[in-house]
């Protein structure tokens, strides 16, 4: 008996093993039989039909390279990925279901009378290809739904936190204008600094969710002096970290047509990263320079151990938080600062890169066209 027909004739014992395995995992222990099996029968019937379908060498090659077209939103594999996320299975647990299904089918079929290695080999190739296809579809749907849920959650949090943060900041600023003891004044200053750090984190969250949900960063182009922006950011950094030295150097005309608020956000994220992860006994250096009539550069550098080459590739990834062992500043990082800095540079038609060595430290180099392209002016 061929494997495809064996699957159709033995769906119930196969599903019984599938259900038992799913129930052995923590999320499945409180689930009923229908929920545990969900779309398993439809997937098994798809596998059997796929194995029986005529398939050219070209089609097999495409499937072998993982280039098979994904199933529709209504496919059993897509539905399974969506439901397992809703049922609180983690990704590893869901993948293990397919591993157990594969093992169950092969074990049951190979135990049939007359099964020989030569008869098994070609059938198993088609079977494994079909299982890999539904596994890939389920994983893709699971991850897509999980990413969207996380990003929507971040967007809601970012939006809803703004009003209470504004109230805290406003109340603290009003208190600062009243008669306070030195101790009360220090505590109030801490509230202001803390609320400002949280405001920036919320801002980063909102920018992150806009870009990850398909929108572009909004930029309002105007005349902007990058040197003045960086000097303001340096002063803010010194105020928040009075024990750190932050120096600014300028060479040439650093005025351009950019979004000044975004430039401040970019510089603040880079300087904050340098303060937090650089050697606390060495200065953070901010350098603005005009390369020529058309381009301006911004470099932010700090000293300390070099970033390992393998880690440099992911430094601009979102939610990328360096090890606490490298942190010398205050906490409060979401791992979004460098990602937002990159998006701001790109929104202005520019670029950003990382250079790091034990000898010269770590330097982020931003290169900006003096006039950002009009095509970079996007709506919110």
Structure commentary:
This protein has 380 residues and is α+β, with helices and mostly antiparallel strands. It folds into 3 domains: 146 residues, Globin-like, CATH 1.10.490; 62 residues, Orthogonal Bundle (Helix Hairpins); 155 residues, 2-Layer Sandwich (Heat Shock Protein 90), CATH 3.30.565.10. It is 57% helix and 12% strand. It has 13 helices and 7 strands. The strands form 2 sheets. A 5-stranded mixed beta sheet has the order 2-4-5-7-6, covered by helices on one side. Strands 1-3 form a two-stranded antiparallel ribbon. A hairpin with a 4-residue loop joins strand 4 and strand 5. Helix 2 packs antiparallel against helix 7 and helix 7 runs antiparallel to helix 8. It starts with a helix and ends in an 11-residue tail after the last strand. The C terminus is likely disordered.
What is the rounded distance between the termini?
A: 61 Å
* Order of secondary-structure elements: HHHHHHHHHEHEEHEEHHEE
Number of domains: 3
Structural class by secondary-structure content: alpha+beta
Uncertain runs are 328-332, 375-380
Q: Can you lay out the helices and strands and say which pair or pack?
A:
Blueprint: H1 3-9, H2 11-23, H3 33-37, H4 40-52, H5 57-64, H6 76-86, H7 91-110, H8 117-176, H9 182-212, E1 222-225, H10 226-240, E2 246-251, E3 255-258, H11 260-277, E4 284-290, E5 295-302, H12 309-312, H13 337-347, E6 351-357, E7 361-369
Parallel strand pairs: 2-4
Antiparallel strand pairs: 1-3, 4-5, 5-7, 6-7
Helix pairs in contact: 1-4, 2-7, 4-8, 6-8, 7-8, 8-9, 9-13, 10-11, 11-13
